[in-house]
Design a protein that fits this description.
The chain is α+β, with helices and mostly antiparallel strands. It has a single domain, classed as enterococcus faecalis protein (Nuclear Transport Factor 2, Chain: A), CATH 3.10.450.150. It contains four helices and seven strands, in the order H-E-E-H-H-H-E-E-E-E-E. The protein has a seven-stranded mixed β-sheet with strand order 1-2-7-6-3-4-5. A hairpin with a 2-residue loop joins strand 6 and strand 7. The chain is globular, with a radius of gyration of 13 Å.
């Protein structure tokens, strides 16, 4: 696993290729999200966002803004809002080795992407 930085993620401004999620076949994700998962050891995060699409409250939102915030003690909070700050899902993670202090992902329709790829 290489050292992931926010600058690495900002280089993704579009995606020529999408990847089909292995568990949630209706979900796809962009090259930037693939890079995040590979370089940040964060396939678990992509799995979580994809699988939470089964939750009616989450699925009801055509646009979703996901944020993972990692604390100094390596606990984290994952939240999803509707793009207007209305939280539709939030959960605390007891431990993570995710290398960044925070990351944002968007879901538009059935595609998981980095905000810079919009």
């Amino acid at each position: 696993m290489s050292k992931l930085t926010h600058a690495d993620l900002r280089q993704f401004t579009g995606s020529e290729q999408v990847f089909r999620h292995s568990l949630m076949r209706s979900m796809t994700y962009t090259e930037g999200v693939q890079y995040l998962a590979e370089s940040g050891g964060a396939y678990w995060l992509i799995d979580k966002v994809a699988c939470l699409q089964l939750e009616p409250k989450v699925k009801a939102e055509d646009f979703q803004s996901w944020k993972l915030k990692v604390a100094q003690d390596r606990t984290a909070v994952l939240t999803c809002d509707d793009g207007n700050g209305n939280i539709v899902h939030s959960e605390r993670l007891d431990r993570t080795d995710f290398p960044l202090d925070e990351v944002d992902l968007w879901v538009e329709g059935n595609v998981i992407l980095l905000p810079s790829e919009h």
